[in-house]
Amino acid sequence: MSNMNRQFLLAARPQGMVKESDFDYAEAPKPVAGDGEFVVQTSHISLDPSMRGQMENRADYVAPLEIGDVMRAGGVGKVVESNHPDFAVGDMVGGTFGMQDYAVFNGSTPLRRYPPNTSAEQALGVLGGTGMTAYFGLLDIGEPKPGDVVVISGAAGATGSIAGQIARIKGCTVIGIAGSDAKCEWLTTELGFNFAINYKTQNVADALDKLCPDGINIYFDNVGGELLDTALERIATNARVVICGGISRYNATGDLAGPKNYFNLVFRRARMEGFIVLDYADQFPAAAEVMQGWINAGELQQGATVLNGFNQLPKALIALFEGVNTGKLMVKTN
Ligand SMILES: NC(=O)c1ccc[n+]([C@@H]2O[C@H](COP(=O)([O-])OP(=O)(O)OC[C@H]3O[C@@H](n4cnc5c(N)ncnc54)[C@H](OP(=O)(O)O)[C@@H]3O)[C@@H](O)[C@H]2O)c1
Question: Phi, psi (5° rounding) for residue 236?
Fold first, then answer.
C-alpha cells in the first residue's frame, strides 16, 4: 500500500468540451484514520456525465465544487484502515470517493456496501448509481406495462442498457438508440432489446416510424436535443417521457434550443417528467435486491468498459462524451 494519495483536482471551469487541462494532478500524503474514522482505498473510479455539470457548479443537488478541490467522482474500493465499529478492514464499499486513491470517512456520509464477491462492474453499474437511475427512472416515472413500446436513447450506456433490460423483463417491446453498429448489435444480440437504431448512420425518425407505427408509450431519454424532439413527435396517447439526462447539451456552448414538439404532450395527453436518483436513496437496498435476483436468474447483464491506470481519469471523462463506452465506464486505479 502506497503512502501517497494521487489526486486530480479541479483546475478550471470547462468551456465547451471538457479538457485535460481542466484538471491538475497532485500528490498528498495517504490519510490516516482518526478516532471513529476509516480509510477506503479506491480500486475503480466511475466516470459520469454529471461530472461535467458539477465542474461548473450547474447541479444544485450536490455541494458546490471549488477550483482546487479534489474532483468529485463515484468509486468502489475496500476499507484498508478502520477505527469505526461498523466498518472493518476488507469491507467492499461504494460511494463518492473523489478522483483519488484514498478517502477518509466517519460514517456520516452515505456509502453502499457490497458482498465481497461483487465485481466492480456490478458495484458501479447495475447495483450502483446508474443501475438505480435506470430502475427508478423506468419503473417509478415510466410506469411500464406489458406490451408497452419503450424507446431508450443512450441505450448502450450504463443507464440505458439497464433501463432497456428492465423494460424487457417487464414485458415491453424495447427499442434502443445508440452511436455505433457494434453497440446496436450488443443491445439486440446480448441484452434482448427487440430493435436498435444507430443514430449516427440511420434516419431515426424513419426508423421509429417503421418500428413503432402506433407510437411510443415510454421514451426514456438520456440525450435530449434533436432525438428528444424526434421522439416527442411520435409519442402514443398517455405516453410517459422520462427525462433522465440530456448529454447532448452538457458540453454545448451558447443558447440551447428547446424541444419544438413539446405540444404533442397536449394532443397525446402525455406526461414528461424529470427525476434525480438521489431522491430514492432510502430505497436503493431494496432495488439492489431485486436487481440481484434478476442477475442471478440470468435476466440482467452488466456491460462495462474498464480503462486502466489512475492517470487515464481526465482522458476517460472526455472519452465518455465521445461514446467510448459500452455499458458502464470506469477506470481501474489500483
Ligand atoms: N436523473 C438522474 O438522477 C441521473 C443519474 C445518473 C445519470 N443520469 C443521466 O443519464 C444519462 C446517461 O448517463 P450514464 O452515466 O449512463 O452515461 P453513459 O450512457 O454510460 O455514457 C454516455 C453515452 O452517451 C452517448 N452520448 C454522448 N454524447 C452524445 C450526444 N451528443 N448525443 C447522443 N448520445 C451521446 C455516448 O454513447 P453513443 O455512442 O451512443 O453516442 C456515451 O457512451 C446522462 O444524461 C446522465 O446525465 C441521470
Answer: -90, 170
Distance CA 250, CA 18 (A): 9
- Based on C-alpha coordinates, what's the Rg of the chain? 20
Structural domains in the chain plus CATH codes: 4-122+302-332 (3.90.180.10), 129-278 (3.40.50.720)
Q: Which residue has its alpha carbon closest to ligand 1 atom 47?
A: 245
Mutate to test the pocket of ligand 1, among 45, 187, 191, 222 (most ligand atoms within 8 A of CB): 222
pLDDT at 77: 97
Distance 222 CA to ligand 1 centre (A): 5
Task: Identify the DSSP state of 68.
Answer: T
Closest C-alpha to 18, from 312, 319, 333 = 319
Q: Which three cell numbers stand for residue 110?
A: 452515505
Mean pLDDT, the chain cut into blocks of 10 residues (334 residues total): 93 97 98 97 98 92 94 97 97 97 94 91 97 98 98 98 98 98 98 98 98 98 97 98 97 90 98 98 96 97 98 98 98 96
Largest CA distance in the chain: 63
Atom of ligand 1 nearest to the CA of 277: 3
